[in-house]
């Protein structure tokens, strides 16, 4: 799974054969320039889900329910429907036990739901930063409890974020649905997800320690703009 936030990136990634494209609320940071995902609105999610949807990807198109858009089952269903109307084929939300009833309501409405456990970016302000999860047996057991509740509620997969590798493996072995890891080490979960800009190197100002870039496009983009400036500014004097 890779994140995508716009039409061209969605097309290019889809051509590579990724299984799923996530329009993540990480777009708040890597596209919209906010400090974290707590500023993202449902209208912004809809705007970007629609752009990715116009790429008509073969990949499963998952849209994040942004912060505050799933306070109760009824509101969760209403807002999940809005993402689906924009082009999402599934939605993702953060949290475990507290979200089970909402997951069940969305699934009952016919919309597939992906869970998200471990580090929950929508709670980064309460947590005081991005911290590793599953460091103790108690923490791991709590994540597993949440994962089992999500599976029971009908979720089709669960993103595990920043869970220590041994705990991610332990949880993955005990959950009946696929886990999709980010920042959990390699091959510890059933699948992996990467943030697009981490993969292609277009957000050099913050690169998470676990990112494994396959390209470093930022310098090429700046170099292209610099070459353009140079070419335009070097028009021979007699042509002016
Ligand atoms: O918003 C996002 O990009 C995500 C991934 C990190 C899973 O939720
Ligand atoms: Na997200």
Task: Set out the fold topology.
Elements: E1 2-3, H1 7-15, E2 20-23, H2 27-30, H3 42-53, E3 60-64, H4 73-86, E4 90-92, H5 100-108, E5 113-118, H6 124-127, H7 137-153, E6 157-161, H8 165-174, E7 179-182, E8 191-192, H9 196-200, H10 218-233
Helix pairs in contact: 3-4, 4-5, 5-7, 7-8
Bound molecules: 3-methyl-2-oxobutanoic acid and sodium ion.
Structure description:
Homodecamer; pentamer of dimers. This is 3-methyl-2-oxobutanoate hydroxymethyltransferase. Its cofactor is Mg(2+). It is an enzyme of class 2 (transferase). By secondary structure, the chain is of the alpha/beta class. It has a single domain, classed as Alpha-Beta Barrel (TIM Barrel). The chain is 42% helix and 13% strand. The chain is built from 10 helices and 8 strands. Strands 1-2-3-4-5-6-7-8 form an 8-stranded parallel β-sheet. The longest helix is centred in the middle third of the chain and has 17 residues. The protein is globular and about 75 Å long. The N and C termini lie far apart (51 Å). The site of 3-methyl-2-oxobutanoic acid has 12 residues, from strand 6. The site of sodium ion has 6 residues, from loops.
Keyphrases for this structure?
8-stranded parallel sheet, binds 3-methyl-2-oxobutanoic acid, TIM Barrel, about 240 residues, binds sodium ion, alpha/beta, 8 strands
């Amino acid at each position: 799974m890779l994140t995508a936030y716009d039409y061209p990136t969605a097309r290019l990634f889809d051509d590579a054969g990724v299984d799923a494209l996530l329009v993540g609320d990480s777009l708040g940071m890597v596209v919209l320039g906010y400090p974290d995902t707590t500023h993202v609105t449902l209208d912004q999610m809809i705007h970007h889900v629609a752009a990715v949807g116009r790429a008509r990807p073969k990949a499963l198109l998952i849209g994040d329910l942004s912060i505050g858009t799933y306070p109760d089952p009824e509101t969760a269903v209403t807002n999940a429907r809005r993402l689906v109307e924009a082009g999402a084929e599934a939605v993702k939300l953060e949290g475990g036990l507290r979200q089970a009833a909402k997951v069940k309501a969305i699934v009952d409405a016919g919309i597939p739901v992906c869970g998200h456990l471990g580090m929950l970016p929508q709670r980064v302000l309460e947590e005081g930063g991005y911290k590793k999860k599953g460091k103790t047996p108690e923490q791991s057991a709590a994540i597993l409890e949440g994962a089992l509740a999500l599976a029971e509620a009908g979720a089709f997969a669960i993103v595990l974020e920043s869970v220590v590798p041994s705990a991610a493996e332990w949880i993955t072995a005990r959950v009946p649905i696929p886990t999709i890891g980010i920042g959990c080490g390699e091959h510890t979960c059933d699948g992996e997800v990467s943030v697009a800009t981490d993969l292609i190197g277009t957000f050099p100002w913050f690169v998470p320690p676990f990112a494994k870039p396959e390209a470093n496009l930022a310098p090429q983009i700046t170099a292209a703009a610099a070459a353009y400036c140079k070419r335009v500014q070097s028009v021979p004097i007699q042509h002016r």
